[in-house]
Amino acid sequence: MQRHVVLITLWLALAGRGSTAEFDLVLRGGRIVDGHGNPARFADVAVKDGRIAAIGRPGTNAAEVIDVPGLIIAPGFIDVHTHAENILELPSARNFARMGVTTLILGNCGSGPVDVGGFFRRAGATNIAVNVALLIGQGSIRSHVMGGSFMRPPTDEELGRMKQVVAKGMEDGALGMSTGLIYLPGTFTKTGELVELARVVAEHGGLYASHMRNESDHIMESLEELFTIAREARLPAHISHLKLGGQKNWGQTGKVIEAIERARASGLDITQDQYVYTASSTSIGSLIPEEAREGGKFKERMQDADERAKVIAQLKEQAAKRGTDFSYAVIASYDSQPRLNGLNLSQAAKELYGDESLDRQIDAILEIQLNGGASGVFHSMNEDDVRAYLRHPNTMIAADSSVRAWQSGVPHPRGYGNNARVLGRYVREEKVLKLEDAVRRMTSLPAATFQIKDRGSLREGAWADIVVFDPGTVSDKATFEQPHHYATGFRLVLVNGVKVVVDDAPANGARPGRVVRRGQ
Ligand SMILES: [Zn+2]
Q1: Distance of CA 518 from the midpoint of ligand 1 (Å)
Q2: Is CATH 3.30.420.40 the right assignment for the domain spanning 2-73?
Q3: Which of 75, 216, 480, 487 could bridge across to 35 with cysteines, CB 3.0–4.6 Å?
Q4: Tell me: the pLDDT tens digits for 387-398?
């Protein structure tokens, strides 16, 4: 048996060497959209040794020629905002690959591996299907150095150590630093502390990417904080998953965009990304005030009647401010009681206690948190606002998703559909964006902003991360009710010249992804 394998391997190696073909692959008869916003044009694309070898009329002297008439050939998509650290466990990353995403940026919202070099070594040894790059997560570093998530400033010694970890991460090839300022311990981090760390990122030429402190009633103050960090630390700043939550804020995107434009006019380099849905997704526990969760003592505090009463009062106030109960929040994945997945908090209260009142909804929130927590989907945005942000020329397209485990839970559909939804719904159907511009926001714009070299562009010499799709049919199939559906319309997805998707199906389990370090 083993001898058999050796012989086949030898034959393959000799066959490869003996081949006289000029190229490994030629894509013929399609239209290219180069990633830079230029108008689509007819051209063939030739691939050799993982790179784009020729564009135009390279001929057909190739080991393989694939005819793609009527289809678009574009650079593989770069998703700048993912939580796909779990790609080490789910290396095929199918939900991403099957909507044309060929490079993932991990480590967002302040959370990610503290040892950047170590993570890259593991990723390099794992055989992943798509490329990965990394941001250093400020929250993870703070917890690591301070020994937990505490509502206090760091000592000088702790701050010094955090700076060292940031510097090491940047030296190891991180693209920059992310924050998640609604999460523990990001929420306890004051602006000055962030500026100190951002200065280290700036010294290494990286960027600052932030899940801002507030994305609804206080979004303007949060923008100011981001601008302050960009100005004082002198580095580019990127707004993660730009949105406007809370019904009473709907229609105010103009103010947000104006503030961003003013900051840019004053010399700051501000960009943003977005997922194109009217619901967000994070932990159900994020509804609970952070003081109650601080220091890992939530359970302890909930045993104290006064503390519990205080948290309940705070949650009631939150609901009153919103003018709704918690039925806008849907349980996505709750390990302790999976039967609640897909139910909103009103339905979950009914299921748990036979009563859907606000009091019982709050009991459900606390019970979920006490039993290990759950992820949730929060229906809190407005479609016109989504379109308004999408129209801004510096908005990139990012799914804010982990690698999805097939059929597990009822997660936000963005992880399966985001890029395809932009191309189908917002380009073809609603004509909010031109195709070339939509592709630019998925390719060259993220590559330039996050310093990813030789990707996000169809040009000779670039890595052959290529997606071939049908502009007439490309669509997302994942819905809030049934999220586990792959996007469709993808004829071919190549990562470093190797097929990972063929005709909306995985291509023989190939996993050609690479680790992408800043500027490399
Ligand atoms: Zn986030």
Answers
A1: 22
A2: no
A3: 75
A4: 999 999 999 999
